[in-house]
Amino acid sequence: MKKFITTLCLILCLLLAFSTVGCTDKDWKVGYEGGAVSSNGGFSVEVGDYVYFINGIATATDNNDFGNPVKGSLVRMKKSELANPKSATSAEVVVPKLFASSYYDAGVTIFNDYVYYASPNSDTNKKGEVLNSQLVFYKTKLDGTDTKKLVTCDSLSQEYKFVTVGENIYLITVTASSTDSSSSGSSSASTYTLKVYDANSGAEIFVKEEADSYAIPTEITVAENAGYIFFTDKIKDEEEQDKEYGALYAYKLGEEKQGVLFSGAIEDGDFGTKGYLFKAINYVNGCLYFTDYNVNSSEDGLFYHFIDVTQASVKVLDTESDTFKADNQANYALKEDLQDVLGATVKTAIAKTSTFASKTEIIYYENSVGLVVYNYQGESEVLVYASKLSTLTSPTFKTIYNGYAYFTDSGNLVYRIKLGDSNATVSKITPVATNTSWYNIEIVTVSGVDYVLLNLNGEPYNSYIYAFEADLEAKIAREKASELPDVTASDYQDKLDEMVEEYFKNVTDKKEDAINALIDARIGTITQLDKNSVNSYMSSNYASSSSSN
To answer: What confidence tens digit (pLDDT) does each residue in 187-243 have?
Structure first.
């Protein structure tokens, strides 16, 4: 009998132990409904009727064993529930791993019912120390099963991009390193190591070390005839080894070798002259943007060019000659008379931070002018004059969506203004600051209503994701219809303006109803620890608050 009791106790202890740890990827499974995928690559992705998103900001040192993470995990929720997140019932953790890379220009990538992502390493070394300063790339099926480790990198801030070309998907990583250029040990400009992996197997298929500059695809989905990365390097002159000239290389994703796209050697003749260097700047919408300049001059004297790769045949040959043959002379120079466009230089316009709206239109913000669209084959124009944003301190352009330009100010509040309307004014969307050091804001449209998704940190918001209706006036008009006067249009608008002002004033004054309304805009799921933190904050500051969150 004693032996039986001992055995029973042991079984109970084992069951208790297993109940206190997270599930493994072998027994984790959630429901899944497929659908069209859009807005890939940020912190949220739309799939059919659902939006998948990173469930707030976690830290790399949090427990990342599969099944444990809630905050920072991948969660999905029906888009129809963004209007009233408090009553949402569809939110669930899809991938219980930490999506906690500190590189915020790439995030959640969904392709063929799999999500491709980066997560801190949860393995341990021989000392039992968790290797969470490393970043691991994974793929997981969207029902939560079939998780596969692909590639491990040394840095949580590793630059990367998942790119699809036809049915193939690749992982591109870029690592910067500085070289010492003097005996005193002073560091010169960075060089870059580019690596390309098969994102289904994790196999490394291409490496380029010590590139001087690079341009990888900006989009997730790339046309098959445009699946390239570009980089520059220097080549020693065969006759005069102390002299170098530049080369612009093209590497076609999936191939074994790169080829020279343009050479700065005079004997190649077709482009540039001996001693010319190149600098790759950006590769977006199938267009490569780059410069060339003489080795004896500074980059200030460079010339800007672009190539529409989708309209040309790129021959990747293992030679030192010009191997780019354009079907329709697709080597376009950005002429000198276009180097000063509406208050900014071409260098400002083609920066990686600009928005490349189409093959010929680049949108950027110039403080002295405003939001500019630079069309290098047609008319350039100002979309929003700086004077229209005079109420904002240090406006930062975020995105254009559904005919509106979105900005943040120095206080990290979010605003928008309608494009193409001379009478348009700036309207505020968020009453408290968003986290601008994380991913860019995301916008989801549901039944004609635009919702801005963003992160709110600090108490009582706890760094989760919140959904705000972009048109605050429309929201208040619906909710306060009975209080709005049914008289003249001007009286109606005046009353509505007062209600909007009161809305923001209530939040500024930290009134209980206003704070609760913001908390109710939280989407996704919340840990019990954070739920307790919210309730503690509210009960400490408002005697009437109940533990409802």
So the answer is: 456 899 999 999 999 999 999 999 999 999 999 999 988 899 999 998 776 666 566
Checking DSSP bridges between strand 92-95 and strand 135-141, what pairing results, if any? unpaired
Query: Tokens representing 7?
Result: 């055995």
Specify whether the backbone of 145 is left (phi greater than 0), alpha (psi in -120 to 50) or beta. Answer: beta
Contacts of 486 (CB under 8 A, 6+ apart): 492
Question: b vs e for 240-273, b when ≥16 Cβ sit within 10 Å of the residue's Cβ?
Answer: eeeebbbbbbbbbbeeeebbbbbbbbeebeebbe
User: Which tens digits make up the pLDDT trace of 54-88?
Assistant: 999 999 999 999 999 999 999 999 999 999 999 99
What rounded mean pLDDT belongs to the chain?
A: 84
Two tokens at 393? 């301190």
Contacts of residue 93, defined as CB under 8 A and 6 or more positions apart, other chains included, come to 30, 55, 69, 70, 73, 74, 75, 525
Neighbours of 279 (CB within 10 A): 19
Strand ranges for 434-520 from DSSP E? 442-446, 449-456, 464-469
Span 366-387, pLDDT tens digits: 888 899 998 877 788 899 999 9
Burial tier of 499 (Cβ tally within 10 Å: 0-12, 13-18, 19+): middle
Crossing angle between the packed helical segments 472-479 and 489-508, to the nearest 10 degrees: 100
**Hunting for tokens 């497929």 — which residue is that?**
34
Pairwise CA distance, residues 103 & 126, whole Å: 28
pLDDT for res 546: 57
Write the pLDDT tens digit of every residue in 437-446: 999 999 999 9
Using DSSP, state whether 61 is helix, strand or coil. coil
Tokens for 167, please give them: 């049915």
* Tokens representing residue 28 in the block: 């984790």
* Cβ proximity of 444 and 44 under 8 Å: yes
* Degrees to nearest 5, angle at CA 478 with 475 and 482: 140
Which residue is listed with tokens 């132990």? Answer: 17
